Amino acid sequence: MRDWLTSPASGWDRHGEQPPPPLPAEVVEQTRAKYVEAYERLTGISW
């Protein structure tokens, strides 16, 4: 998520005064998948 926000693809200037843009669904899904993977590895329980 952070990588996307700071990339040219987001079009966001983090030093500007505008709030960050909404996250694309693909970025949200990839981020969610990483958190689910981390949960499953740490707990040994399937999400």
Describe the fold and architecture.
- The chain is mainly alpha-helical.
- The chain is 49% helix and 0% strand.
- The radius of gyration is 14 Å and the shape is elongated.
- The relative contact order is 0.14.
Gyration radius over CA: 14 Å
First-to-last CA distance: 21 Å
The SSE order reads HH
Write down the overall geometry: elongated
The biggest beta sheet is recorded as: none
Mean pLDDT, all residues: 94
Helix count, DSSP H or I runs of 4 or more residues: 2
Percent helix range: 40-55%
Derived structural class: mainly alpha
Beta content: under 5%
Q: How many β-strand runs?
A: 0
Which spans of ≥5 residues are poorly predicted at pLDDT below 50? none
Question: What keyword list fits this structure?
Answer:
47 residues; mainly alpha; 0% strand
The gist of it:
Helix content is 49%, strand content 0%. With 47 residues, it is mostly helical. The model has no long low-confidence stretch (mean pLDDT 94).
Helix and strand topology:
Elements (H helix, E strand, L loop, with lengths): L1 H4 L19 H19 L4
